[in-house]
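User: Hey, quick favor. My workstation is busy. Could you predict this chain's structure for me?
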Amino acid sequence: MADINQVYTQRAAMRPLGIAMLLIGHDPVIGPQVFKLDPAGYYVGFHATAAGQKQQEAMNYLEKKWKRLEGANGGDDAAAAGRGLSRDKVIEIAIETLSTVHSTDYKCGEVEISIISTSEDEPEATRGRWRVFDEAEVEKHLLAYGEKD
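Assistant: No problem, here it is.
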């Protein structure tokens, strides 16, 4: 994908892929994988990332949050810190990042949550597959985050 993006940057008439892209999946050996591709064809893996409006603020917030994981040892071993996160904690961090960066308390119809999870909390039929949460699940997580404050 990154190579295709890079080819499309070589001529002005070929700019339909002038966007950032996040590729998310689960590798059975390595575990969760997140890659960010830019329009120039550059790609890099992350433990947590953001794209779009206020991207840099979100990245800074996620980096600080990640360093505080595992009793403030997340900066020393970021991969181990990530493996220690529960499915619900990952969702909470995502909601917290959006809410903090945009200074907004989101309502159910204002945010969409998608996930790929191999957690035991995930229904068997969707375990390890990409899925979009329905409104009831989004509401549950937004309420849990709101009650945490």
